Amino acid sequence: LGTHRVNIVANKLDLLPEGATAARLEAWLRGATRARGLVAQDIFLVSAHRGDGTRRLLAALKAQAGPHYM
Description:
Strand content: 15-25%
Strand order of the largest sheet: 1-2
């Protein structure tokens, strides 16, 4: 697995405790991903409930998939 690049999608952004920052969460997710032998290509923090970050996620996935999957 070592060099496999993955997208990390963290949902429930709307439920983060007060004082938690996106930067801190992203840093933790990158470290946890690396500890498992993976490389985070991108990290998406989303709230499916509120819709936060979902457009960015969908746009990135469409761009990565290319025209053959549209």
